[in-house]
Design goal:
Length: 54
């Protein structure tokens, strides 16, 4: 079960541990993969999700 969604569900906030944990669960990835995806494509969840599905 996912924790409560972040305040802005369209962007990944890497400054918040709670949000990083949320996105790792929601996108089924490790924190390292999440951070690498954000570095590669930016903070928009749709872009991060597409990157992780490659």
């Amino acid at each position: 079960m996912l924790p409560s969604p972040p305040a802005d569900a369209t962007r990944v906030n890497l400054s918040s541990t709670v949000e990083v944990n949320y996105w790792c669960q929601a996108l089924n990835c490790t924190e390292t993969r999440l951070r690498n995806a954000v570095l590669a494509v930016g903070l928009l969840v749709a872009d991060v999700q597409a990157y992780l599905q490659r």
